[in-house]
Prior knowledge:
Elements: H1 2-27, H2 34-83
Amino acid sequence: MQHDWVTVLGMLISLVMGVIVAKINQRAPDKETDGELIDKLRAQLTDIQTRDIKIVQLESEIARLNHSITLLSEQIEELKEQSQ
């Protein structure tokens, strides 16, 4: 008889633990772990840094092209003066 009570008590404890775990999972089923969140933030930071590098490269290229345009404009002006 005592063995039956121990079995029933064990089953009740298991049932209560299952209910508690289910309730916890219902509250936060999509919660990310800290590690996952940190990994996502690092990936976003890397993306931002990559974009910043590309922007700096584009700005440098624009400056180079502007310089080339200025030189070409000066050469055009010189050619116009020579042709007159």
